[in-house]
Amino acid sequence: MNEYTLVGLLGVVVLLMLFFIRLAVAYSMAVVGFVGYWYLTNFKAAVSLLSRDMFDVFSSYSLALVPLFVFMGFIAYYAGVSAKLYDVANKCIGRVRGGLAMATIAACTAFGAICGSTTATAATMGTIGLPEMRRYNYGNRLATGSVAAGGGIGVLMPPSVVLIIYGILTQLSIGKLFIAGIIPAFLIAGLFIVAIVVYCAIYPDQGPRGDAFPIKERFLALFEIWETAIVFLVVMGGMFFGFFTPTKAGAVGSFALLVIAVVQGKLSWRNFKSAVYDTLKTSAMVIMLVAGATIFGHFLALTRIPMEGANLVATLNWPGWAIISLICLIYLVGGCFIDALALITLTIPIFYPIVSGLGYDLIWFGVIIVLITQMGIITPPVGVNVYIVKGLSPDVPMEEIFIGVIPFLIALIVGTAIMIAFPAIATFLPDMIG
């Protein structure tokens, strides 16, 4: 083992140690990358790398779509669109056993279509859904588990921030990645609902029946979410038919939702400022994370660890499916300890050449990786969505919430297996784009 490889491995170990002591992920990657590059070259080269990478990331046109889509999500939240989504879903399916939990999943799926953030989706739907489920005497496990898992659909449902970062790191079409995530997102939502049905059949006290609404009222309720339908169709339809790029789609969607909210009188000046502030805070976090990952990635490239890893996998002489399974296992374990965005930005430079060399569809691989990292947001010890739900329900023990997400974790594993067996589920729509 040469010195460069040894320094690279030591850098990875130090980085993981910084993760475990809860130092900010973005700063951890930037510091380790800078110090490692300095050690292998010189101080002047390291400072040049730091300034160049920071400038390139913060001036990146591609990353401009992150604050646009995040802003769209916060406008929806502060304008009360999310509350309306939950109300409609409750009217349609709340009457069946576990119906309110199903309504939560449905509302999370719809809100994810205009948000793209798992934490924002979980926080929003938890604020609305948890009090309602408690009012109807739902068990803590099903109530908290459905919110934590349902929020994860925001990772996959376009516009997904994780898919945006994956597209930037791999230079793939973000529009195609968005389109590829639609069917898998609905597939996972459907599997979550099946998991609720099975769980309520075993533990009926966890999901008692809710109020029944007339068919006419349920049908008319669907017209109450026309804002979400219009914005989703404009954004996704515009990208699908090539009318505008993903960045412009984010601008169009944000402006359309803002106009609708203002015209309807649902967005006060105070809430507008709150949406801008939350967008700035979230976007800065995401972009800083990309900058830190870029610096660390250049350090890893200098150590040649990604290339050596690709060569090592190539010499295993394993079939392609076995290598993909190994990579998925690494993401599954890593997702239990590292945030989804951090994990993807850290590992894509290593695994991307391997998957590309095996000849697999890289759009499909992006969806698979997002699916697997979705498991990480509801599994210990990171489980960011679980901690969000814990913050919303401080009286519920943490172990109760983790037990509650188990049926949804099983559904995610089943969904991932289906996606691996039938990759056309993710590639069908992108292949239709000229």
Automatic annotation (TrEMBL):
Keyword Membrane: yes
Cellular localization per UniProt: Cell inner membrane
Predominant localisation class: membrane
Topology in the lipid bilayer: Multi-pass membrane protein
UniProt GO MF annotations: transmembrane transporter activity
Membrane-traversing stretches: 12-40, 61-80, 100-130, 142-166, 178-202, 223-243, 249-267, 279-301, 321-350, 362-389, 401-429
Keywords of the record: Cell inner membrane, Cell membrane, Membrane, Transmembrane, Transmembrane helix
CC per GO annotation: plasma membrane
Domain (TRAP C4-dicarboxylate transport system permease DctM subunit) ranges: 12-425
Coiled coil: none
Signal peptide segment: none
The protein's name: TRAP-type C4-dicarboxylate transport system, large permease component
Biological source species: Desulforapulum autotrophicum (strain ATCC 43914 / DSM 3382 / VKM B-1955 / HRM2) (Desulfobacterium autotrophicum)
Phylogenetic lineage: Bacteria, Pseudomonadati, Thermodesulfobacteriota, Desulfobacteria, Desulfobacterales
